[in-house]
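Fold it.
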Amino acid sequence: MDARSTEFSVADAKARFSELIARAEAGEEITIKRHGKPVARLVPEKRKLTIEERRQAHRDWVAYRDKHKPTLGPDLTIKQLIEEGRRF
């Protein structure tokens, strides 16, 4: 468990459910145990990206991909590489 995780028994979780929901909303992970064994977790809901954030992430990914494209070198072609691979 990380530093932001807290454990409660089923009985305690039932009695303090509203509080535990508020704590999960604030970013805390809550582990619920029965007889000392974890049986459930309350975790914060992940914020969904807006359409503009998704578009920007895609543009960033395309820019990164284009910047880091592998190259074959000035004198190599795909056909030459395939033919070389077939020799073995």
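Residues 1-88 form a domain with the YefM-like fold fold (CATH 3.40.1620.10).
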